[in-house]
Amino acid sequence: MAEQREPHLVVLTGAGISAESGIQTFRAADGLWADHPIEEVATPEAWDRDPERVLRFYDARRDQVRRARPNAAHKALAQLESRGFRVSVITQNIDDLHERAGSRRVLHLHGEILMARSSVDPRMRYPLRRGGIRLGDVCDKGSQLRPDVVWFGEAVPHFADACALVAEADLLLVVGTSLAVMPAASLLHQAPLEAPCVLVDPEAAALAPPGVTRISRPAGEGVPPLVRHWQREGRLWVPETLLEAR
């Protein structure tokens, strides 16, 4: 007899879930890119041209992350995992709010702002328990430390791992993302055909591709009721009350 596999919930989260914790997004009309052009703070060329400016930008983002607290959506997903559900989180966010809420299986597609890494060897990473990065801070090979984030024009090193996780999903939950950032947006195409997909976002009606169940609410309002439903039923499935939103 074939071995029965525990159902796997794979969650893809974007800036919307962190925005509810007070972390400023990049793409909103009043977002970070409105005041800081991409090419000046978030590209390899910007780093080569003015590393001090890049470091200041990410130091400010790091301070913001440290002040933020996990919200109801982060906590609900962590609680689901603590109740014995198999939950994997793939996040486009560089904060640690999922981990602080209690999630243990978190894959950061775009890096982690509370880590520094070597400019010459991306495998050399260092936690930033306090403070930031300064010019002259070097790795064990003597090269300048940089933020451990993926800049525009750089490869996404964990994308293959994310594809493998989504391919295992029994249900794919997408939270707080515009589905406009590549290659993360293409992850939906990696899910098994039989796996339901649910999008929780205030703009879900406009953003959701065909066949995706839409919950047009902020993460903190849309995720907890869904999690409570799964806990109550003891299984992953899309409630009939949501199917009408397809």
Automatic annotation (TrEMBL):
UniProt keywords, alphabetically: Cytoplasm, Hydrolase, NAD, Transferase
Active-site positions on this chain: H110
EC number: 2.3.1.286
Binding-site residues for NAD(+), renumbered to this chain: 14-33, 92-95, 176-178, 219
Protein's cellular compartments: Cytoplasm
Catalysed transformations (reactions): N(6)-acetyl-L-lysyl-[protein] + NAD(+) + H2O = 2''-O-acetyl-ADP-D-ribose + nicotinamide + L-lysyl-[protein]; N(6)-succinyl-L-lysyl-[protein] + NAD(+) + H2O = 2''-O-succinyl-ADP-D-ribose + nicotinamide + L-lysyl-[protein]
Molecular function GO labels: histone deacetylase activity, NAD-dependent; NAD+ binding; protein-malonyllysine demalonylase activity; protein-succinyllysine desuccinylase activity
GO cellular component terms given for this protein: cytoplasm
Domain of life assignment: Bacteria
Ranges where the Deacetylase sirtuin-type domain occurs: 1-233
Major location category of this protein: cytoplasm
Broad EC category: transferase
PROSITE patterns linked: SIRTUIN (PS50305)
Annotated residues for binding of substrate: Y58, R61
SUPFAM superfamilies referenced in this protein's UniProt entry, alphabetically: DHS-like NAD/FAD-binding domain (SSF52467)
Statement: the UniProt record of this protein carries the keyword Hydrolase: yes
Role noted for this protein: NAD-dependent lysine deacetylase and desuccinylase that specifically removes acetyl and succinyl groups on target proteins. Modulates the activities of several proteins which are inactive in their acylated form.
Family of this protein: Belongs to the sirtuin family. Class III subfamily.
Domain free text: 2 residues (Tyr-58 and Arg-61) present in a large hydrophobic pocket are probably involved in substrate specificity. They are important for desuccinylation activity, but dispensable for deacetylation activity.
Protein name: NAD-dependent protein deacylase
Classification of source organism: Bacteria, Pseudomonadati, Pseudomonadota, Gammaproteobacteria, Oceanospirillales
